[in-house]
Design a protein that fits this description.
Blueprint: H1 10-38, H2 63-70, H3 75-89, H4 93-101, H5 111-117, H6 131-134, E1 138-140, E2 151-153, H7 155-162, H8 169-172, E3 177-178, H9 186-204, E4 211-215, H10 219-232, E5 236-241, H11 249-266, E6 268-273, H12 282-295, E7 300-304, E8 315-319, H13 325-335, H14 346-353, H15 358-371, H16 378-398, E9 402-404, H17 417-431, H18 433-439, E10 452-458, H19 464-475, E11 479-483, H20 484-487, H21 494-506, E12 512-516, H22 531-549, E13 553-558, H23 566-569, E14 574-578, H24 583-593, H25 605-608, H26 615-631, H27 638-652, H28 658-661
Parallel strand pairs: 4-7, 4-8, 5-6, 6-7, 10-13, 10-14, 11-12, 12-13
Antiparallel strand pairs: 1-2, 3-5, 9-11
Length: 666
């Protein structure tokens, strides 16, 4: 079958030709039977369909002749194919075969039958290296001898002869699916054209086609580039995930054979997604991928996070980056062109905070337009669009980190003026990053150091997480908490992999990353005595490098700032010290801790401030007191707070002194 579309009249013409050749083969069998019964050796036959008289075949020959040409089938091999095709298209074929072989139970074609009706017998056609078995055009049943084994046409070959184009079922079970065409930005179109040209040039020079390797974190764009490359060349790309490849060698060999056959029959190209590998199967799967790359005799495109090591075949590697800010801006403008809102200036804010590919921008715009109320003003419409961007960016990160619902506001923070000022500077950097980096040209100086990094240092409960919530709520961003103590691994290289997954997943969403328990990774730079010491420093350097290039805000929290190496601290843009609140600050926290809807009675905030606890403990005490008061159907009073404070101090394993609660209750 031709790989390119054919005229509608090709299909009925192909059917007539196939049925005609089957009828011709039937006549040969009938004359063989007649010869056996009457001793007549003159059993030549004519051709029922003349290719030259079929106008439809001017564009593409019938599928049978293409099959013979593709696999260079001999006359005997062609005859075997037709004997097997008869079984699929003629319900009386089995009885005919049995009669021709003189064995009533042999209602199927065999090599012996084919050899008896051909004028050019050739034993080599029966070997495993010959086309019929090498390309699995036929399937063999079990029998005492090779020549009398039942033969059957492979299902995919049956469909091919009939003019159909399904994917082989065994490959479909691997999850193989055709790539969908997506719109490409100019930089990605250029990559696709470069890839196509490399194959065209190699083909013209009769060289082995290089494997095309696309590296980067944007899996969707890599698939779109691969699909566009195939379209330029008139090919069809099929995505296969490396994780679905079989582990057994004989099964992997079968997959390789079937893909090579799909390429020759239909011009189908495997696009192998190397993806992320899990610790338990990484080595085995890596071997499978390498074996496939080295042995597959067909064009291949592979998608991976990082560059693969050199292999036996030529390998052309291209790095795929997210669309540039200018390209993202153009995609947004095109996607939102049908809406009534005036997006002047607002798209720049989207591009500044969200680093999205073409497919995600298109999906986000569609989601927005289905929910958009045309009566909304531009500000309301932009808020809805912003929320749609956040929603699209969440799924990848939700699997790796804990999302914190940010509801806190600036008035919930009680900090000294200097520390509060630094937090507001951080917010200003996030708001104005587009103007400074893009419009004022700082991004053109290089990507390093453009990430906004911060360290929040202070004892537990002093407001570090609350401050991150305030920033997220103020800027209408998501904040995700990552426990660094859980990320750090004793196995060399695993910590970087864990960190990479987090940053790669967060890159498109502009989220605030809150790395808690930084003490698990940071510390005084140790003297390098062995490979583990050396790698501990590498892990820290990797984290800081990713923070410096991350488009959003990355925050580290620590209880022990003094233990951190100054060389590392110099690479962090903002450092905020959260002091333990003094009595005046504790009183202010008590004034703000109860929501306006909470009924209170005769609370003395100055007396409450004598409790020597941090803000986090104050919030715990206030919340527990509210439950105690609600259960008593009373407004929150000093007695309820006293009861709750006792419980909190027990939890902290500290005594509640008389000085702290003196005069609370008369």
């Amino acid at each position: 079958m031709p790989s390119k579309p054919v005229a509608d009249d090709w299909y009925p013409a192909n059917h007539r030709y196939l049925m005609g050749v089957i009828a011709q083969t039937r006549q040969v069998l009938e004359r063989l039977i007649e010869q056996q019964e009457q001793g007549n050796e003159d059993w030549k036959t004519g051709i029922f369909v003349d290719i030259e008289k079929e106008p439809a075949f001017a564009q593409a020959p019938p599928a049978l002749e293409q099959l013979c040409q593709i696999f260079n089938l001999s006359p005997l091999e062609r005859q075997i194919v037709m004997l097997c095709a008869g079984m699929e298209f003629d319900r009386n074929w089995g009885r005919l075969c049995a009669k021709a072989q003189g064995q009533p139970q042999w209602e199927y074609p065999t090599f012996s039958l084919a050899l008896s009706i051909t004028s050019s017998p050739y034993w080599g056609a029966l070997t495993q290296d010959a086309p019929l078995r090498r390309w699995r055009l036929i399937e063999m049943g079990s029998a005492p001898a090779l020549t009398i084994s039942p033969l059957r046409l492979d299902e995919q070959i049956t469909h091919y002869l009939a003019g159909l184009r399904p994917l082989d079922e065994r490959l479909a079970q691997l999850g193989a699916s055709p790539l969908q065409m997506e719109n490409l930005v100019p930089s990605h179109t250029a990559l696709a054209e470069q890839m196509a040209n490399s194959w065209v040039q190699a083909s013209q020079e009769q060289r082995v086609l290089p494997i095309l390797q696309l590296c980067g974190t944007d899996a969707t764009s890599k698939k779109a580039i691969a699909a566009h490359t195939c379209q330029i060349l008139g090919l069809t790309g099929y995505a296969v995930t490396a994780q679905n490849l079989p582990r057994e060698n004989h099964q992997l060999h079968l997959v390789r054979c079937l893909w090579e056959r799909e390429w020759r029959l239909y011009r189908r190209v495997m696009v192998l997604d190397g993806g992320n590998t899990t610790e338990s199967s990484e080595g085995e799967r890596e071997n499978n991928i390498t074996q496939l790359l080295d042995t597959l005799d067909a064009p291949l495109i592979i998608s991976s996070l990082e560059r693969r090591r050199a292999i036996q075949r030529p390998l052309l590697t291209l790095d795929v980056h997210q669309p540039s800010p200018a390209e993202q801006r153009q995609v947004w403008q095109t996607a939102l062109s049908e809406t009534s809102s005036d997006w002047n200036g607002h798209i720049d804010r989207l591009v500044s905070h969200f680093n999205l590919n073409t497919a995600t921008i298109t999906a986000t715009s569609w989601q927005f337009k289905t929910q958009h109320n045309p009566a909304d003003d531009t500000a309301q419409a932009f808020r809805s669009l912003w929320d749609a961007c956040r929603s699209q960016a969440r799924p990848r990160l939700d699997e790796l980190a804990q999302r914190i619902e940010a509801t806190a506001q600036w008035e919930d923070l009680v900090l000294p003026p200097n520390e509060l000022g630094v937090l507001k500077d951080i917010a200003a950097h996030l708001r104005q990053r587009s103007k400074v980096y893009e419009q004022w040209g700082f991004a053109a100086k290089g990507g390093r150091g453009l990430g906004i990094s911060a360290m929040f240092a202070g004892a537990s409960g002093t407001g570090k997480t609350l401050a991150a919530e305030v920033l997220a709520n103020t800027l209408h961003l998501d904040v995700y908490r990552i426990d660094l103590s859980a990320v750090v691994s004793k196995y060399i290289g695993e910590t970087e992999k864990n960190l990479r997954r987090v940053f790669d997943a967060a890159e498109g969403g502009g989220v605030i990353l809150l790395f808690d328990e930084a003490d698990a990774l940071f510390g005084k730079r140790t003297e390098v005595k062995d490979s583990h010491d050396r790698h501990a420093n590498i892990e820290v350097s990797y984290l800081l490098q990713r923070m410096e290039s991350y488009r959003g805000l990355a925050i580290l929290t620590t209880n022990l700032k003094a233990s951190l190496d100054q060389a590392f601290l110099r690479r962090i843009r903002f450092i905020v010290q959260f002091p333990f609140p003094d009595a005046k600050q504790r009183a202010e926290i008590w004034r703000r801790v109860f929501p306006s809807q909470t009924p209170t009675a005769d609370l003395d905030f100055e007396k409450l401030a004598k409790l020597s606890v941090a803000g986090g403990n104050i919030r715990n005490i206030a919340l527990n007191a509210a439950f105690v008061a609600a259960d008593a159907d009373e407004p929150v009073g000093m007695k309820h707070i006293l009861q709750s404070a006792k419980s909190e101090y027990i939890k902290m394993e500290r005594p509640l002194t008389d000085v702290e609660v003196k005069g609370w209750i008369s």
